[in-house]
Design brief:
Length: about 280
């Protein structure tokens, strides 16, 4: 049996939120190991990205289950059985909890959580019928260690972690693998205008993509980026609350989103809050 990332040679990988960022980089990483990749996004830019990488693309709104199901069936009929489904589509809208508009809260929940639910509901029946398949849900370290001024975003990522843990146990007898990815802040458009932490330092998009490809090949449930970030998560549940709060303050966690450069974040905010449901 082929082991390591090379196992993806000839396999079909579908990535949501694939027009840019982590989705684009993950596609490039899978392609470098011989996979057939299909990028999905509601932003038409996904076609330019796919053309640049040399892969396929589909327009799909992850918030609409019927749309996702139709996309799954189309890919299975035209490209082949889906071996890996990466739920990557997600957005982050920042602000104080009481100041965040209700529609922004709902938008994050619909894309970051409902989108993951829809992806799994759409692709799992085919995977179960074949007795194999791997679903990768991109969460965040904010899904283990909550971040102020990004309360709803953190809530959606905590939900993705819990959802994945529950579903992987339910479908273990069916031979389906599940992973969830927890990167620290990433040097991407999603973090534009935000502050920086003393530790951990931000990682490159390519680091997240490589971790997804390697972690999925190793059938890891938890994929931390970087790997050593598992230690703070474990320790956070062991130390007294007072010590945890002091460490959060010292690291810069409590301030990273407390003061955002609106001008630097304007392009991202306009895209994800616009009239079109642009994700990725």
């Amino acid at each position: 049996m082929v082991k390591g990332p090379e196992k993806w040679s000839g396999r079909t990988v579908v990535i949501t939120g694939g027009a840019r960022g982590i989705g684009e980089a993950t596609a490039a990483a899978f392609l470098s190991h011989g996979a057939r990749v299909v990028l999905c996004d509601v932003d038409r830019e996904v076609f330019e990205t796919a053309s640049r990488l040399g892969c396929q693309a589909r327009l799909v709104d992850v918030r609409i289950l019927s749309d996702v199901r139709a996309t799954v069936l189309d890919i299975e009929e035209t490209t082949g059985a889906i071996d890996v489904w990466v739920n990557n589509a997600g957005i982050m809208l920042l602000g104080g909890f009481l100041e965040q508009p209700d529609d922004q809260d709902r938008r994050q929940i619909e894309i970051n959580l409902v989108g993951v639910l829809n992806g799994m509901k759409a692709v799992l029946p085919q995977m179960v019928a074949r007795g194999r398949g791997h679903i990768v849900n991109v969460a965040s370290m904010a899904g283990r260690i909550a971040v102020p001024y990004a309360a709803t975003y953190s809530a959606t990522k905590f939900a993705v972690v819990g959802l994945t843990e529950a579903v992987r146990l339910e479908f273990a007898p069916a031979g389906i693998d599940f992973s969830y990815v927890m990167p620290v802040p990433v040097k991407s458009e999603l973090m534009s205008g935000a502050g920086t932490m003393r530790w951990p330092r931000p990682v490159e998009i390519a680091d997240v993509a490589a971790a997804i490809v390697e972690g999925a090949a190793a059938r890891q449930v938890e994929i931390y980026v970087p790997r050593h970030q598992r230690a703070p998560v474990v320790l956070s549940g062991l130390v007294p609350r007072r010590i945890y709060d002091l460490a959060a303050k010292a690291s810069g966690l409590t301030k990273i989103f407390g003061s955002v450069d609106a001008r630097a974040r304007a392009a991202y905010s306009a895209r994800v809050q616009g009239s079109k449901p642009l994700v990725g």
